[in-house]
UniProtKB/TrEMBL annotation:
GO biological process, one term: cell wall organization
Xref: InterPro entries: Beta-glucan_modifiers (IPR050732), GH (IPR017853)
Bias (Low complexity): 249-285
Localization, UniProt: Secreted, Cell wall
Family: Belongs to the glycosyl hydrolase 17 family.
Region (Disordered): 249-299
Presence of keyword Secreted: yes
Record protein name field: Probable beta-glucosidase btgE
Keyword flag Chaperone: no
Primary localisation category: secreted
Entries under Gene3D superfamilies matching the protein: Glycosidases (3.20.20.80)
Function: Beta-glucosidases are one of a number of cellulolytic enzymes involved in the degradation of cellulosic biomass. Catalyzes the last step releasing glucose from the inhibitory cellobiose.
Organism: Cordyceps fumosorosea (strain ARSEF 2679)
Length: 566
């Protein structure tokens, strides 16, 4: 990595699309290339729409920051800390003799001011050195106070962490965001987010904040993109695809030798490079056969076919960097999984997650998400954006299964007839995709005659989300039998093969009759499911997600599968 600073204007054109993922999840938009907005830039680097202000709060503490900067540490009883860094004039972090401006292939954000058809030309760039730049991330958030950005790491004892932090510099009336390598001493075991920003918004708002992005050497091509805007100030992201990249996975956080200290047995595992991630006991050997490519059956060749993944920081919901995503996906591969399920295209999912899966030889179960409150139609701007993103990616070979909507009938978002039309429209819009298509609903929805009559002729396999923990008569050891019986019932509805698109067990929370969450029970339940139907199941989920509603927070499978997370 070059020992120079790389700057990019920290701004964003217009509003961005909301995120699309499971169970009333919060809304997060695309990370994009910095571009002019006309909106004021807050001192911390966020661009806020009207009604958004930035809060500055100073709390004294014992944390030590190296180099010398003004630092704020916020700690909770769970030993999770957020460190906000403001560079001072006397900062000594990574001395730089000159400033180098590098043209890099960060995704380009394009604004369509009025409805119509827009053509964005193709572009090719060549990068010769590994470069860390300051990209811009957009996040659509509801009213309230939100912490975004920063670099999150987990340590088991007092540890010095070195990582790139995105900061904002204003000179001559011009505000730019830049990267500074920063050392931070994590005083005790726990999870630390370094360099985060806190913003308060009075209304639902799109904020923009700087994030470190690592660009590897290679040739990057952005294909010509044709977009049909159906609303004013429509924003689309034109991503680059790469070739000729090195096979090594970049590591965004360097951890020095920990200061000797007693380690808690309950502390989170320290971050590790993918090569050192411990595979699960049942991980297949490198010579194991790859999953099949049949259009009428989607399953793996081992007892844990796939896992759900979203590129979000578990504690905050902020978008992870490309380097962080690559480490996560590498650990999924090391644990023996053969596929990854994604729910939508937000948060640079197609730009970061899909290429990481290709690099690791993992299949992708892609999704198109219809948010509550929206019309169940391909003409809905957010839905059309997701379809356009998939078309622009133009990498259908890696997509093993396309899931059109997630529990949309169950949540009252789509009727059966509306979902039928959406599936037909998606198939028509994506002629390059010739693989299987399905939906994700629960068994009770599939058992409705109207739903079965409408969807069975259209889907290639029956897709369902099956969680045994929601049945109060099933304990952890019986989870596998319960899930398998539900899959058998589903197979009889359409007389087609079944893919279990979500299945898991909570690691924390209150009991639901016999179904009690907990670390030990989670391991028992997952082991039970693996024995009965793991080859046709997508396990939920990669990590705990504390930023979601309480019912959706504690499903992470990090401990069960020895996953190394960022």
């Amino acid at each position: 990595m070059k020992a120079t600073f790389f700057a990019a204007a920290a701004a964003m054109a217009g509003a961005a699309s909301a995120a699309n993922h499971r169970h009333a999840h919060q809304m997060f938009a695309k990370r994009g290339h910095a571009a002019s907005t006309g909106f004021p830039l807050a001192p911390t680097g966020e661009v806020c729409l009207p009604g958004c202000t930035t809060i500055w709060k100073t709390i004294t503490g014992e944390a030590t920051l190296v180099p010398v900067t003004v630092t704020t540490v916020t700690s909770t009883s769970t030993n999770t800390s957020t460190v906000r860094i403001t560079p001072s004039p006397t900062s000594v972090s990574v001395p730089v003799q000159t400033t180098t401006v590098v043209v890099v292939p960060t995704p380009e954000v394009q604004r369509c001011p009025t409805p119509g058809t827009y053509t964005f030309p193709a572009t090719t760039l060549t990068v010769t050195d590994t470069t860390t730049v300051c990209g811009a991330t957009t996040t659509k958030v509801p009213s309230g106070t939100h912490t975004v950005g920063g670099v999150t790491t987990v340590v088991t004892t007092q540890t010095t962490v070195t990582c790139p932090v995105a900061t904002v510099v204003t000179s001559g009336g011009v505000t730019t965001s830049t990267i500074r390598m920063t050392e931070y001493v994590c005083p005790t075991a726990g999870t630390y987010t370094i360099g985060a920003h806190t913003t308060a918004c009075q209304t639902e708002t799109v904020i923009v904040y700087p994030t470190p992005t690592t660009i590897a050497p290679g040739t990057y091509t952005k294909p010509q993109v044709v977009v049909t805007a159906t609303e004013t100030d429509y924003v689309t992201v034109c991503p680059y695809t790469s070739s000729g990249l090195p096979t090594a996975t970049p590591t965004p956080v360097a951890v020095s030798t920990p200061v000797p200290a007693p380690a808690s047995s309950s502390a989170a595992p320290s971050p590790a490079a993918p090569s050192s991630a411990s595979p699960s006991a049942a991980a297949p050997s490198p010579s194991a056969p790859a999953p099949g490519s049949s259009k009428t059956e989607v399953k793996g060749t081992n007892d844990h076919y796939a896992i759900t993944y979203g590129p979000y920081v578990g504690s905050t919901g902020a978008c992870k960097s490309k380097a962080q995503v690559e480490i996560d996906i590498a650990s999924i591969k090391a644990a023996g999984f053969q596929a990854v399920r994604i729910y939508g295209t937000d948060c640079d999912t197609l730009v970061n997650v899909v290429p990481a899966c290709v690099k690791q030889g993992l299949q992708v179960i892609a999704g198109i998400f219809v948010k509550p409150g929206q019309q169940c139609s391909i003409n809905t701007p957010d839905v059309k954006k997701q379809v356009d993103d998939l078309i622009a990616m133009n990498n259908w070979d890696v997509i093993r299964l396309l899931v059109v909507s997630n529990e949309s009938i169950m949540n009252g978002v789509c009727s059966a007839s509306a979902l039928v039309q959406l599936i037909k429209d998606v198939k028509s819009a994506c002629p390059g995709y010739q693989g299987p298509v399905t939906v994700a609903e629960t068994l009770n929805i599939w058992q409705q005659q109207e739903v079965a009559d409408a969807l069975c002729p259209l889907v290639d396999v029956v897709g369902a989300n099956i969680h045994a923990i929601f049945n109060p008569n099933v304990d952890a050891s019986g989870a596998g039998d319960f899930v398998k019986k539900q899959m058998d019932i589903l197979k009889g509805i359409c007389n087609k093969n079944v893919i279990n698109l979500e299945t898991g067990w909570k690691n924390n929370g209150p009991c639901n009759g016999k179904a009690c969450p907990g670390a030990d029970d989670q391991k028992k339940a997952i082991s039970s499911i693996r024995k009965t139907c793991g080859d046709a199941s997508v396990f939920f989920s990669f990590d705990d997600e504390g930023w979601k509603p309480a019912a959706d927070q504690a499903w992470g499978l990090t401990a069960v599968f020895n996953l190394a997370q960022q």
